[in-house]
Amino acid sequence: MDRIDKETALRLLKDYDLLEIGEMADGIRKNLHPEGVVTFIVDRNINYTNVCINKCRFCAFYRDIGSPDSYLLSKDEIFKKIDETIAPGGTQILLQGGLHPGLDIDYYTDTLRAIKERFDINIHGFSPPEVCYIADTSDLTIRETLKLLKDSGLDSIPGGGAEILSDRVREIISPKKIKSSQWLRVMEEAHGIGMRTTATMMFGSIEEPEDIIEHLDAIRKLQDRTGGFTAFIPWSFQPKNTEIGSRFTVHGSRFYGATAVDYLRVLALSRIYLDNIKNIQASWVTQGLKLAQVALRFGANDFGSTMIEENVVRAAGVSYRVSKEDIIEAIKSAGFKAAQRNTYYNITKLY
Q1: Extended beta strands in 6-142, E state
Q2: What is the Cα–Cα distance from 182 to 133, expressed in whole angstroms?
Q3: 36 vs 122, 167, 284, 336, CA distance in Å?
Q4: Are 262 and 233 in contact (CB under 8 A)?
Q5: What angle do CA 92, 98, 99 make, to 5 degrees?
Q6: 8 A C-beta contact, residue 88 and residue 42
Q7: Mean pLDDT per 10-residue run, the chain (351 residues)?
Q8: Crossing angle of helices 128-138/142-152, nearest 10°?
Q9: Which of 13, 84, 152, 281 has the most other CB atoms within 10 Å of its CB?
């Protein structure tokens, strides 16, 4: 299939029948992954702090410093969580947190070194907003910051903080967060020093279809230049307990987020448009196990993580929990072979 342009992508998103676009995406998935294997990883989200100065309107997780339920994990607490991750075969931790005004570069480098001294585990951590904040508060460039983090033990970077790469939308839902160009710059700099990253998209807030296309196009262009993205993960905004969900209205009525049909349509379009990214991840965390199974026929080839712990989406009132065995059974019952992978999408075990 030839590469599609933005105009064609917009027509697919707005006008095509859901099953038609799903079939197109499924065909591309089969070409890229003809062996019929769907992968997953055993890992844990470790949110080292929920204190954040950004106060994004779509987020239910952040707290002000000094809030009764704010926290900052100690190293021993982080170590305990890693022990609990390794026990069932975990190979990765996703280390992310809010932008805590009391932390400096030494906190991050010391934490990374302490983890690597004790554990043989991949640290997938510090999304672009965190990297920019560390750089700004330490009077360092983005590249200098990334090199320091990498030298201290950071292995790869998650795609958090992308939301929609449209500054018009970002100005409304997260006015204090970094701009689209900064998110893209962090990823390009990371790729430039040999770090692999993922890319994400949170849709279903207040964006228009054109914004979704611009987001996908920005990711595709960067991947053309660097080849550094391992996977793309689209997920839908969860409005419960957020400022947008409680205060914002769209077209005169309270906003309730994307539907299951919206999710499958955007997922399928992502598979079609991002012809230079091999892996598309289903989001059982926001959609549940059954819809994630359906997503495997709409372009997804990866089931994400067992996510032994997850806090950010749960704060927005969505709390799907699944075991490794649940994931394996879901993949197999959908007609695929299940395989455990590592951070870099190399298969480590077939089931």
Answers
A1: 37-41, 43-47, 92-96, 122-125
A2: 11
A3: 26, 38, 19, 5
A4: no
A5: 125
A6: yes
A7: 94 96 98 97 90 65 71 93 91 90 92 97 95 94 98 96 90 84 97 97 89 97 98 80 47 58 96 98 86 96 80 43 87 96 96 94
A8: 110
A9: 281
* Degrees, nearest 5: CA angle 96-327-87: 60
d(CA 20, CA 25): 9
Q: Which residues contact 171 (CB under 8 A, 6 or more apart)?
A: none
Q: At what angle are helices 260-273 and 209-226 packed, to 10 degrees?
A: 30
Give the integer Cα–Cα distance in Å for 77 and 85.
13
Pairing of strands 43-47, 92-96: parallel
Edge-first strand listing for the sheet containing 229-236: 43-47, 92-96, 122-125, 156-157, 196-203, 229-236, 279-280
Which amino acid, one-letter code, is at 342?
Answer: N
* Strands in 2-106 per DSSP E: 37-41, 43-47, 92-96
Class for domain 6-350, per CATH? alpha beta
Q: Where are the domains of the chain?
A: 6-350
Do the beta carbons of residue 12 and residue 21 sit within 8 Å?
yes
**What's the Cα-to-Cα distance from 147 to each of 94, 188, 257, rounded to whole Å?**
19, 13, 38
pLDDT given at position 209: 93
Residues 6+ apart with CB under 8 A from 175: none
Whether 286 and 238 have beta carbons less than 8 Å apart is answered as: yes
Between strands 302-305 and 37-41, the pairing is: parallel
